[in-house]
Amino acid sequence: MKSVKKPWFHTQKIRDDLYCITEPHYTWENRANLWLIKGRDSDLLIDTGLGVSSLKLYLADLLDKPLKVVASHVHFDHSGGCHEFDQVFIHENEHHALCCGDQQQILSAPEIGFVPDSDFDSIPYQGFSASDYEVKACPHASAIQHGDVIDLGDKAFEVMHLPGHSSGSIGLYHAKQQTFFSGDVVYDGELLDNLKDSVVDEYLTTMEKLMLLKVQEVRPGHYHSFDQRRLQELVKQYIADKKAPICPSER
Ligand SMILES: [Zn+2]
Ligand SMILES: [Zn+2]
Question: Tell me: the pLDDT tens digits for 147-159?
Fold first, then answer.
């Protein structure tokens, strides 16, 4: 029998204005990084985790200003907690799916069982079962698009539409600090381009854009943060893998 873990989340303070929140009892391979950025006039939360425990209550002590919540894309490990928050933004391509709780798009392919019980080493509450897992609809979410700016007063984040992993995947770029919050567009692990809403050609175009991005630090949706040199290695590797000639026996 698995134990109930409270709090469900873990917070790592990176700087005075930057925190990384995770769900340590959910499998490492799919565990998302949720980024909280403190601004002068408002705070920004990038991604909201699975939604199996209240992130809003958990974060209450850290929040003293209006909060803007941006989902890097609609997949469940990023959008699960969005419904709890008042000001929620998602790219226009995935806006409808989040607003109406389209589980097909949110879970990508529920029939292949993306959220099995075995992915949890503890549970968020007594009676939790992954087989009942669903992401709640967020009917009040607003749509954003490429070029929009999320302004916190003393810092501004530019929305970059970077499809490929999913049609509404975005990154948020802070030009002054040269920090890039990359969601699932790029992280230091196996990139997923074989989901129902993935498009490899679009991913390649996205990667070519990332090659030109000036960054000091990438804060990804999964795994560890990295610098521009590693970003370029990951991008080059992806492009090389996709453009490699296919062996005749594999056709
Ligand atoms: Zn994803
Ligand atoms: Zn993800």
Answer: 999 999 999 999 9
Cα 40 to middle of ligand 1, angstroms: 30
Number of domains in the chain: 1
Q: Is residue 93 part of a domain?
A: yes
Q: How large is the C-alpha radius of gyration of the chain?
A: 18
CA of 166 to the centre of ligand 1 (A): 7
Distance 128 CA to ligand 1 centre (A): 23
**Residue 36 falls inside a structural domain:** yes
pLDDT tens digits along 20-51: 999 999 999 999 999 999 999 999 999 999 99
User: What digits encode the pLDDT tens for the residues 106-137?
Assistant: 998 666 667 899 999 999 999 999 989 999 99
Q: Give distance in angstroms: CA of 114 to centre of ligand 2.
A: 11
Report which of 190, 154, 164, 144 is spatially closest to residue 46, judged by C-alpha positions.
144
Q: What one-letter code names the amino acid at 119?
A: D
Distances (CA, A) of 122 to 9, 23, 116, 166, 231: 12, 10, 13, 29, 33
For residue 102, is it within any domain?
Answer: yes
Report how far ligand 2's centroid is from the alpha carbon of 76 (Å): 8
pTM over 0.90: yes
Domain that holds residue 15: 10-243
CATH number of 201's domain: 3.60.15.10
In a domain, 2, yes or no: no
